[in-house]
C-alpha cells in the first residue's frame, strides 16, 4: 500500500491558532466587555468580513491601503477584507440609520485583517472590540464613554488604571491664540512625541516643520508644564486659551465631563486630564481618551477613543456626530499575562470524573448528569484507562476537583472527592441526586 | 463648495448586516451553545480565517472547491477563506495534538465563507457552531454527544424535539449480507431520498444505479418498514444484519448508546433510532445523529454529526478517531422566529432613564449608576429632548421599564416607574442608593 501524500499542517505567517489555554481567557475578556457594554444599553451588531473594495479603499490612509487583503470574487467584483470596524460601521450607519433611528449605541467585537509587516511583532489577523454612540453631541455621551471604560477595567479585575482625557478643542484654541491654527497638523505631530523625545527636541521639530518661532514653540510646550489635580489643570488652561471661542468651549467641556464622571461615583484618581493627548490628527474633534495600566504604563494605551463630528460622510449626507472607544484586546491580554492575572487552564469545566470501573459507565453518566444539573461543569473521561493516567490528564488540563469511584466506593455507597490543587481527599456519600457531593463541590469551588 | 463624492453604502450579494434586533438573539443562542458545550468540558479554540490554499483545496469535494474564496496574498502565497470548521480543525489537530494530548474536546464557533449560488437562498458568509471529541473510540463519547445535543435544545427553550440516531455499521452490515457492499454509495444515495420520493421510486433508482435485483432493493427497503420503540427497532434489526460482523457490532453499539443516554436521564421520546439516516457517504463510519424540531420537521435537521475513524489523515500519520456535531445556527434562528420564540428587542438593557430635566444630568447619572451597580442594565438618553420623544425611542428599542424623574419628582424625592409593556405607573421614593427603586425594578423584571 502507498502512503497517502501528506500536507504539512501549518498556519500563514502573522496568523495564529488559539488552543484552549489561550482561548479561554480571550473568551472571558470578550464576555466581560460585552457585559459592560450591554449594561449601558449598547447593542451588538455585525457586518460582513468582506466588503466592496470601494467601501474600504482609501479610508484608512496610504499604509492601510497597502495592507488591505483584496481580490476579485467569483463575480469578478473587487472585494476586500475589513481592516477595522470603523469603516464598516460608517457604511452600516449610512445604510440603516433611517430605519434604526438615533441615538444608536452599538458594540462590535469582530476580527479584522491587515497585511502588516510581521517583523514589528504585529499580527495580520486580530480582534477589535469597539463601542460607539452616534447621533448626539451631548456631553452625556462623552461622560458615559468614560464610565464604560472605567467599569470595563474594574470588571476585568484592575484596581489601578488611569483614563487620560483631553479635548481637541483645547489644542485648537491654543493654536488659534498663537496664530498657528494653519500649522496644527505639524505641531500636533511634534507634540505627540513629547513623552518619547522630551520638550527641547519637540520645540526644535516644531520650529523646523511648522515654521514657528521659538516663543510660539515654548508657548505650545507650556501644556507640558501643566500639572496638579484636574481642577488645577483646568485653572491653568483658562489663560492659555483666553480669547479663543473654541478653546474656551473645550475647557468648559472638559470641566463638564469631569463633573459628570464624578457624579457617577468614579474617583478622581481614575480619570486625569492630559493636555498632550491628541490621538491622531484628523478624525477626532472633541473629547479624546486613552487608558493606561498603572503597573505597565509603557505598553501604551489599552483603550482609546474620542468624539468625531461626522462618522459616515463618505456614504451619506446625513450628519452623524458621535463618540466611541476601542479596547486593545491583544495588548491587554499580553499585559494580564505579564501581571499574572491569567489562570493557566485548558478546560472550562471544574470537575473531572475518571472512568475507573469499566462496567459502571451508567453510574458515571448518572453522577455527571446530577452534578451538571446543579450548574457545575463536569467532564467524564471517555475510556476506562488506568486511574493514574486519567488523573494525569486531569492535572494537565487544570481541573479543580476529581470525583473518583471504583468498585470499592460503589459497594460502600461513597465517592472520593479529590481537590486537585491541594491533593486532599475525602469520602462522601453517593446519593442518587448526589446532593452531598454537590454541596462539597460547591464549597471547594468557592475557596480562593 | 463642492459636494464630496459619495460612495453608495451597500453589502455584497449573499452577505448580511446584523442590526441589534437580529444580533441580540444570535448572541443569546451562541451563548447558550457555549454554556452547554462548556458544561461537558469542551474547550473553545479558534483558527485563522485564512489558510494556505493547499490546506483547504480538494478537502470538501468539487462543489466546495468551486465555492472557495481564494487569492494571492501580499507575499504571492495562494490562500483561501475557510469554508467549514472541520478542515481547519483537522489541520489544527495534526499540528498541535502532541502538545495538547488526547482526548481533545473542543468547540469552535466561527464564520465560514462559500461563494454559493444565492438564488438557492444560501448565504456566502455564515457561522458554524461545532463540537468534537477526538482521540477516543469509546461509546462514552457517542453517548455524550447525544447528551450535549439534548441539553442544548432544552437550554435553548425547546421541549419537543427528536434526536434521530443510527449507526453506519448497521447499513454496511445489511449491504454485506445482501452482497451489495461494493455498491454502497449508489444505494445509500437512493436511500437518502426515501422521505422525499417514497419507497417505490427509491427501489427503481437502486435497480437502475446500483444494478441490484428487485429482491435486493426490497430487502434494503425493509429498513423503511421498521418501526416501534427503540427496543422494537433493535429486535427487528438483528435478523437484517445476521451473519455480518460489522452489522452485528453496529446494532450492539446502537443498543449501548441508547442505554447510556437513558442512564443519564434523557427520556426515550427525545432519542429515536432512524435506520434510514446515512449522513453523507464517506466521512462518517459509526454513530450518526440528526435533530428535528417536532413542530417544524420539514426544515430538516438543525443539529447533525457523527463518528469518524480518522480526522486528520491528510496532515498527519497519527490516527485520530472522533465524534462531533454541528448546530445549524441560521436554520435554527429562522425556526425560532417562525415559532415566536424570539423577542423583538433592539436593546440588551431593560431599564431606560429619560434625560428629562436638563439641569439634572448629575442626578440621572447617579440614579443610573446605582441601578447598574445592582446588576441591572440601564440606558440614559443623552439629550434633554421632549419626554414624549424619548419614551417613543424607548418603546421602539424595546425597553421594559422607564424611570422618569423631572423637577416635580426630584422636589418630592420620588421617581416614577413606568412599566413599558403594560403602561402602569407608580411613584417610588428616590433614595441615594436607589434601594426601593431597585427592589421594584427587580420585581417587574421577574414577571413573565
Explain the overall architecture.
- Two copies of one chain form a homodimer.
- Chain A has about 450 residues and is of the alpha+beta class.
- The first copy, chain A, has two domains: about 20-340, Bira Bifunctional Protein, Domain 2 (BirA Bifunctional Protein, domain 2, 2-Layer Sandwich), CATH 3.30.930.10; about 350-445, Anticodon-binding domain (Rossmann fold), CATH 3.40.50.800.
- Chain A contains 16 helices and 16 strands.
- Chain A has helices at about 20-40, 55, 60-65, 85-100, 140-155, 170-175, 185-190, 195-210, 215-225, 230-240, 245-265, 330-340, 360-375, 385-395, 405-410, 435-445; strands at about 45, 50, 70, 80, 105-115, 125-135, 160-165, 270-275, 285-295, 305-310, 320-325, 350-355, 380, 400-405, 415-420, 425-430.
- In chain A, the strands form three sheets. Chain A has an eight-stranded mixed sheet.
- Chain A is elongated and about 90 Å long.
- The model of chain A has no long low-confidence stretch (mean pLDDT about 95).
- At the A-B interface, α1, β1, β2, α4 and β5 of A face α1, β1, β2, α4 and β5 of B.
Largest interface pair: A-B, 108 and 107 residues
Q: Give, in spatial order, the strands making up the sheet with the most strands of chain A.
A: 1-5-6-11-10-9-7-8
User: How many separate domains of chain A?
Assistant: 2
- Main β-sheet of chain A: number of strands, strand sense, barrel status? 8 strands, mixed
The proportion of residues in beta strands of chain A is: 15-25%
Give the oligomeric state of the chains in this entry, treating copies of one chain as homo and distinct chains as hetero.
homodimer
Poorly predicted runs of chain A are none
Question: How many helical elements of chain A?
Answer: 16
Protein structure class of chain A: alpha+beta
Average predicted local confidence, pLDDT of chain A: 94
